[in-house]
Amino acid sequence: MKRHVLALICALGTMVPAAATVASPTPGDRQSLDQAAAINTQLGLEYMRQGNLQAARDKIEKALRQNPHTAQTQMAAGFLYDRLGDDRKALSHYDQAGKLGKDNPDIVNNVAVYLCRKGDRKRGEEYFLAAANNALYKTPAVAYTNAGRCAREDGRPQDAEQYFRKALTYKADQPDALLQLAELTHESGGNMQARAFLQRHLAVAPATAATLLLGNRIERALGDNAHAAEYADRLNSEFPASQEAGLLLGEQSAKP
């Protein structure tokens, strides 16, 4: 400790005028700053989890001053400003995270989620595909499913279907891909396929009001009133106060 104090005093005693060139941090100082930035980033994320956004901003801004050149810190700043509703700053930090972490598929996937959610779907889709095609990424089925959701929200159902089917080649029971395919094939009139996809989905995921209403609609389209009634009974008994139960009542009342 005494050596550090003496070093600081000597440094202050030999400071050059402001116009002179300031020496770059020594390797030891740089390492200390990098470590401090990593710690402050983690503290900022923990404060975000606790809902203390002011403390989170203090820590993450400090981390950015200490070392703005890591994808993790830029990603944390993106999370923070997204939470704070500052889209301009959030996008800037996500963009930096994507550039710095282009070889980290988890970072790339997180950037893609943000871009798709904010409407930049084509670019988000590209990021999802980059993550899916990275050999280090452990869940390519999730990335392909997310790419499919992005394409579907962009009004390109055929591209979306291709991505969902690609996801199933990596994980045959990927729940969201199965549900998305059930919805898409029902919308396009392929109700036999829709039934099969929904049955596979319900085999690996709990039923929701939305899936039970979809099942009812598929079975009615196929003319199978018995199975349609089974879905309706489950929807009304398990989710009686849901919006879907109200929609079902309206659809049943509208029948000739």
Describe this structure in words.
The chain has three domains: 37-101, Serine Threonine Protein Phosphatase 5, Tetratricopeptide repeat (Alpha Horseshoe); 105-171, Tetratricopeptide repeat domain (Serine Threonine Protein Phosphatase 5, Tetratricopeptide repeat); 174-250, Tetratricopeptide repeat domain (Serine Threonine Protein Phosphatase 5, Tetratricopeptide repeat), CATH 1.25.40. The protein has 14 helices and no strands. The termini are far apart. The protein is mostly helical and 256 residues long. The chain has helices spanning 2-13, 27-50, 53-66, 71-83, 87-100, 105-117, 121-132, 140-153, 157-170, 175-187, 191-204, 209-221, 225-238, 243-253.
Keywords:
256 residues, 14 helices, elongated, Serine Threonine Protein Phosphatase 5, Tetratricopeptide repeat, mainly alpha
Describe, in short, the structure shown.
Helices cover 76% and strands 0% of the residues. It is mainly α.
Annotate the secondary structure layout:
Blueprint: H1 2-13, H2 27-50, H3 53-66, H4 71-83, H5 87-100, H6 105-117, H7 121-132, H8 140-153, H9 157-170, H10 175-187, H11 191-204, H12 209-221, H13 225-238, H14 243-253
Helix pairs in contact: 2-3, 2-4, 3-4, 4-5, 5-6, 6-7, 7-8, 8-9, 9-10, 10-11, 11-12, 12-13
